[in-house]
Amino acid sequence: MQSDELSTSSLPLESILEALIFVAPAPVSVAQLATAVGTDEETVIAALSRLQESYQQRGLRLRLHQGRYELTTAPEVSVYVERLLGLEVGAKLSKAALETLAIIAYRQPITRAGIEAIRGVNSDSVVRSLLAKGLIEERGRADLPGRPLLYGTTSDFLAYFGLESLEQLPPIEEPEEQDQSLLKD
Q1: Closest CA to 152 of 66, 86, 73, 46
Q2: Rounded to an integer, what distance in angstroms lies between the CA atom of residue 130 and that of residue 136?
Q3: Are residues 97 and 163 in the same domain?
Q4: Burial of 90 (0-12, 13-18, 19+ CB in 10 A)
Q5: Which of 29, 70, 130, 152 could form a disulfide with 136 if both were Cys (CB 3.0 to 4.6 A apart)?
Q6: DSSP state, 110?
Q7: Residue 144 in contact with residue 151, Cβ under 8 Å?
Q8: Within a domain: residue 174?
Q9: What does the pLDDT look like over 40-62, one tens digit per residue?
Q10: 56: exposed, middle or buried (C-beta count within 10 Å: 0-12, 13-18, 19+)?
Q11: pLDDT, average across residues 18-47
């Protein structure tokens, strides 16, 4: 769509972007959207922000993950979606899976050895399980001996926890320093 076509469209830019994101087979970048509508990225970002705001009182959300946008259902309607689709309501993750996900979310991209160094236990089966559930993905290889795989979270991870972006993760609380007087005789 050329910029003159955009100005003659009867729909606002937000509606056009919404339709493009809806039909896209995968999350789309601002650059892809700007090219598709024939306008600059700043204009697209502003329209996406307005679109995101308009979804706050509706059953859909516009989610940004790794610089790409996609439409998802609002976390508040998950029970109804699960019921309609016949999904297992409230499927729980194990403590080990949650622990591993937290490590990956805050330290991504991270190797399996990095995860295990933090957890202190072998994490092969947990990582395989999280990969199978689509909550994490391979993100390439580290520049280390053996070129180990790097892992990061997916957009399904965000959906599972009702987040729109990784910036919504709570800050990590650093442990308080041990009282040094306890270590003295």
Answers
A1: 66
A2: 6
A3: yes
A4: exposed
A5: 130
A6: E
A7: no
A8: no
A9: 999 999 999 999 999 988 999 99
A10: exposed
A11: 95
Q: Residues near 164 by Cβ (< 8 Å), separated by ≥ 6?
A: 52, 61, 62, 63, 64, 158
pLDDT (tens digit per residue) in 82-130: 788 776 655 678 899 999 999 999 999 999 999 999 999 999 999 999 9
Q: Is there a domain that residue 21 lies in?
A: yes
From its phi and psi, is residue 148 left (phi > 0), alpha (psi between -120 and 50) or beta? beta
Q: Provide the domain limits for residue 62.
A: 3-77
d(Cα 50, Cα 55) in Å, to the nearest integer?
9
| Residue 151 phi, psi dihedral angles, 5° rounding | -120, 150
How far is CA 177 from its chain centroid?
Answer: 32
Q: For residue 85, how many other CB atoms are within 10 A of its CB?
A: 7
73/28 same-domain check: yes
Q: Which residue has the tokens 């926890």?
A: 161
